[in-house]
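Issue: copy button drops trailing tokens. Both records pasted manually instead:
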Amino acid sequence: MNDSLEERFTYYYDRLRGPEQDDAYHSLLEMNSGIASYLQQKFEAEADPDVAALVLKILSQTAPAESRALFFRAVHSSERAIRREALNGLLELDHKLARKLLEQARRELPQFREEIDDALESLGDDR
């Protein structure tokens, strides 16, 4: 079987919605950063917030630096699961960059201040 990367990605991505979710999630993780652009595109079009949150979770473990702009946009989501995974993704970045982005989000999103403060606290005091 000589499937292309995109075909394998699509195969596993489509299974994030069913009983094979856990296997699909781990298979996508194993594909690593080669699929970051596919995941980012899928996130933008994803209607299911639980699947969108899984996409962010995969990106935070495989391509956090490449996905920082997406994480920052996703922190603005009204969906708690998406915000949580976006914050986790930002925490995977260099601490100074993460702090800068989280402080900006804190200013822009007073309604999510408690969640953002928790993320900032987890960075510690490494200014």
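Record 2 (pasted manually too):
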Amino acid sequence: MDLSAVAQDLFDEVKSRYTNLTLGDADAQVTTDPQMARFFKFNFADNPVSVAIDEESVRLIYNKDITDILDEESEQQWYQFARTMREFAVTHNMNFKPQDVEKLDLEQGDFEFMSQVNTVKENKMHGTSKTSYHKLDKTKMIIRHSKAIDEDVPGARSRNISSIFVENKEGERFRFPYNYLSGARAMMMHVAKGGNPYDAIGESIIKKVEEIAQLRKFSQYAVRQGLVDENTLPYVEAATDKIAEAKRTLHRIAKQGTYEQTVEALDSNTTDLQQEDINDLKKLFTKETFDEDIMDAFKFLPINEFKKDDDETEVDYKALTGTAMRTAPYVNKFLSDPDNKLILKKDDSYDKLQNNLRSQMSDMEQKLAAVMRDIATRFLSADPQDDEVANFASDMETKLAAAGELFNKEDPNMKTLKSVAMQLANRYLQDMKKMQQSDEYRDEVRKSPEDVKAFKNIKGKDIEKGKLQKQYKRKYKDESQHFEAWIDSKVAEMNIVLESEDVVKSKYEDPFKI
């Protein structure tokens, strides 16, 4: 690997974002040559951050308390920068290792220290192989793990959680009802502030975690069962927004600087549902059977916002402009039938190419457009009506490719169309995965055109499926022999005879030989 080129690329990436950049070489000495640099130190929102590179990895080195120091907007920018560094590592075929350290500042002499750091310390958590501790003032969070912790694995103390306890300054211990760290951290801050799990704020914190759990179950159910369409999409999107809002609330409660103002505005009210509303939602989210476990999530959804007015009429999809919007209902119907297969023209090399291309794409819409393009160009079906699937994929690929272009006017129904496209892409990707595991399944979803539907010969007569190639091989088997015989007869008619002296030997024995 050319580490000098990587260093130059990293310098360009970081320099374009942050000033006051200090470079250190492999000997832990300050340098001004970007290609010699192996350590890059700069300030992120007045917080010292460093990036180190070696032959195998890119390490992002930062103070372990940085997220507690930053405000919410800067925190999101920090996570975005971390993702950028991870993408940089991936594009240069290197490992990415985020590393937090105890020191509040990283001086020039710390370059040598950073070059020797190979492990990541847990953020605020320590303990034994089966128990982790997190202290806040005189309050403590105790985490029991179902598996032994490997200290060399980043984030190990945040995984395999079997139970969480919050202990106050008197030594009273309360088991948090969910194995959810963000909620437990919020409860620990509340207890440290003098509250308890059973007061109004403590109950509101638990309700927020319950809200996240129920809405996640609801969203996963809708996507897994293929129930996301133009009618259910607003509810699914509302569930996603409510999850994000609840997580932000817990995150702010867990912070010293935002605790007070967040708990003052804390709202734990839920919607009182009428039986009529429950029945309507059941119809929307029922395929063949309804999962009663997701009914608890309904009370968190803004039901009244999505109710139709009495004078509101149903949408006539046939009257809508745009191929994708007209064909979307048929695609939903096609995907909901388990007997329907997404059959594409057989081409093993093209399948492999598509997998490689998608793995190199970082943007989700790019990947979605690539899948739509493949379906549009290779989809096969014996039923002409199923061509609506290819038509939808073709129009969606065009819309996705045009997104973000200058003067492009986005389709107002784009959210609805994307949800249908995602379901179609999900079927495509599931097929790709199953094909790698089973050659028999590959033969079911990858076929030649003549194996799917009948064709007509030159006389307009139907040729049975699978017989086209065989018939034409038989018909034109001796075509080359007949052509050569015809050429020989024409040459003979011209009566051309070449004498030996008329033939001049080329001065090149072999024109292709150098």
